[in-house]
Specification:
Blueprint (H helix, E strand, L loop, with lengths): L2 E5 L6 H6 L7 E3 L3 E5 L4 H11 L6 E10 L9 E9 L3 E4 L2 E4 H4 L5 E3 L7 H4 L2 E7 L7 H11 L3 E3 L2 H11 L3 E10 L10 H18 L1
Parallel strand pairs: 1-3, 1-4, 4-11, 5-9, 9-10
Antiparallel strand pairs: 2-3, 4-10, 5-8, 5-11, 6-7
Helix pairs in contact: 2-6
């Protein structure tokens, strides 16, 4: 099985590239898997996927860290994001938000379709994510998006990857590790190192046993 690993930044998967002794490039190739570093955000992700996504891949594995709306989930936890939504794609109507679905111009939500029976995947908690251009750091906007979409995770790329996979018919999996809770910006409380360590260790195990 040929896998395409997709990540926004090199540090998020640095331990993986070290483990497999891969060069520091934005696109790295091996016989079993390739790695694509897209850059941060939906636009950069879509552009990079447009250059490299193809049906030669049997699976796209989107990796990264994420913010979490659920404080019962410990920082560093690795999660399986099975649905993801473009949270801001639509229109404001005074105090209300009209999604792109309701406007009749497309859809917001995408699912990570795959038939993986790997024990390492099955044991992960399945959650819903949202994809944003601006990460939340204001109590009012946090409360509003929680009431409207009830998400667990927040990233800046996830739904773009799932969109690309759905439109090319390629199975996909989005795995994210929690680096921080979604709250007013508080860098002192972040656990980025732990999140990256746990994400990379999970991925190395998955690649080794797949």
């Amino acid at each position: 099985m040929k896998i395409l690993l997709v990540a926004a930044t090199r540090p998020e998967i640095g331990l993986i590239t070290e483990h497999f002794k891969l060069p520091e490039k934005d696109f790295m190739q091996t016989p079993e898997f390739d790695i694509l570093i897209t850059g941060v955000g939906m636009t950069a992700t879509a552009f990079a996927l447009g250059q490299h996504l193809s049906t030669k891949y049997n699976l796209v594995l989107n990796l990264g860290i994420a913010g979490c709306f659920d404080r019962s989930i410990p920082l560093g936890t690795v999660l399986n994001v099975i649905t993801d939504e473009f949270a801001e794609l639509g229109a404001e109507d005074r105090e209300n938000f009209i999604s792109i679905d309701e406007l009749g111009f497309g859809k917001n939500s995408y699912t990570a379709y795959n038939n993986l029976l790997s024990e390492s995947v099955i044991k992960l908690k399945k959650v819903k994510g949202i994809t944003v251009n601006k990460v939340h750091g204001n109590e009012i906007s946090i409360s509003t998006v929680k009431a409207r979409l009830n998400p667990i995770t927040e990233s800046m790329e996830g739904a773009a990857v799932l969109y690309g996979c759905e439109n090319t018919g390629i199975p996909c999996l989005q795995i994210r590790s929690i680096s921080n809770y979604v709250e007013p910006r508080n860098k002192a409380a972040w656990e980025i190192g732990l999140a990256i360590k746990n994400l990379n260790e999970w991925t190395i195990g998955f690649l080794t046993n797949t």
